[in-house]
Design brief:
Elements (H helix, E strand, L loop, with lengths): L1 H9 L4 E2 L14 H7 L2 E14 L6 E14 L5 E7 L1 E3 L2 E4 L11 E7 L7 E2 L6 E6 L6 E4 L5 E2 L2 E2 L12 E2 H12 L4 H5 L2 E2 L7
Length: 201
Amino acid sequence: MRKALIAAWVAPLSLLVAAPLPAAVLVPAELGELAREAAVIAHGRVIAVQGVWTAGRRSIETVVTLEVATVLKGQPGREVSLRVPGGELGRYRSVMVGAPVFREGQEVIVFLGGRAPSLPYLLGLGQGVYRVRRDPRTGAGMVMPPPLHEAGAQAARVRRGDPARRMVTLEEFSRQVLSVLEPRGERERAATRPAPGKGLR
C-alpha cells in the first residue's frame, strides 16, 4: 500500500496545459489503508489556494491551507497547509493526472502524509480527499467518495451497493475511520477531537 501511495504522488506527470495527456494508472486506495498510512486526518474548510513554482521553476504546485475543525488523527493545529501537484501561476498552468483541484470555501476531509519541515501531501492524490456537502435545509454534512479515476482506457468497475461509493453522514464517516484506527489505540488519542478553534457549520 505504501508503495502504491508514494508512486501515485511522485509520478512525473506535470505538464503544460497545451501538451497531450498520457494514459495513467491510479491504484484505488481502500479507506482503511489510507487511514492507517496517514500521519494526519483532518476535517475543515479551505481558506487559501496558492500556486507556487517548484524547485528550479520546472513545474507548478498548489499550496492549499485548511482551517481545521476536527481531527481524526495526528496533531495538525488550527491550520494545516498541504501541497498538491499542478496548479496555476500567472499565465502558466500545470496539470497532473489524478491531482484534485481545490477552491476556497470548500469543506473537505484530508488524509495527509509527509514529515516536517516539508509540507504534507495528499495520500493517493485525489483518493486522499473527501468532499463534504451540507444539506441546505438541515445543515447536516454528507461526505462524498472520491471520484473514480480511469486506469488507462478502462474505467474502474463499480459494484451496486458498494458502501465506498455512496454518501454517508459526516458522523458515520468519522466512525468508520476511527473504527479502523481503534485496534492500534488511535481512537483514544484522536476521538474526533475538535481543533483549537470553532467547528464548521
